[in-house]
Amino acid sequence: MPLRKLLQRINTPVSELDREQLRRFCADQAGVVAIAEARPREEISVVGEISTLRIVPRAGSPSLEAVLSDGTGTLVVAWTGRRHIAGVAPGKRLVVSGRGMAQGPKGRLLMVNPRYELL
């Protein structure tokens, strides 16, 4: 490894190196699109890593809500009526498929009750 690349790697923050590694991992998966390229109301499959997980009350019943990141953007995934799903935890990688909808003023995508596969 040339000295310049080594110095650049040493000076790059760990979070940026992790994001780049996650971006490469997600790009290698077949049949998925990057979260940054996903559009509302389209049937999509994305792969990413769960960064946060929380239980949110919605319409009187709990919803398990996860924020999925692939290094290019984030996607909110919600499973209604669930407090826990075995294997779904922060740091885990999964593929989710479904139809996204715009959420909030910035238009972040929300996917409700998607099909999922743990990696």
Outline:
The chain is α+β, with helices and mostly antiparallel strands. Helix content is 19%, strand content 44%.
Average pLDDT, rounded to a whole number, is 82
Number of helices: 2
Sheet of most strands: 5 strands, mixed, barrel
Query: What is the third-level CATH name, the topology?
Result: OB fold (Dihydrolipoamide Acetyltransferase, E2P)
Give the structural class.
Answer: alpha+beta
Number of strands: 6
Q: From the structure provided, what is the oligomeric state, counting identical versus distinct chains?
A: single chain
**Spatial order of the strands in the main sheet?**
1-2-3-5-4
Number of domains: 1
| Poorly predicted tracts of residues | none
Radius of gyration from the alpha-carbon trace, in angstroms: 16 Å
Order of helices and strands: HHEEEEEE
Tell me, what is the CATH class? Answer: Mainly Beta
User: Which bin fits the share of residues in helices?
Assistant: 10-25%
What share of the residues does DSSP label as strand, in percent?
35-45%
CATH architecture, by name, is Beta Barrel
What is the CA-CA span between the terminal residues?
31 Å
**In CATH, what is the homologous superfamily?**
Nucleic acid-binding proteins
Molecular shape: elongated
Notes on the protein architecture:
The model has no long low-confidence stretch (mean pLDDT 82). The chain has helices at residues 3-11, 14-27, and strands spanning 43-58, 61-69, 74-80, 93-103, 108-112, 115-118. Helices cover 19% and strands 44% of the residues. It is elongated. The two termini are 31 Å apart. It has a single domain (3-118), classed as Beta Barrel (OB fold (Dihydrolipoamide Acetyltransferase, E2P)), CATH 2.40.50.140. With 119 residues, the protein is of the alpha+beta class. It has a five-stranded mixed β-barrel.
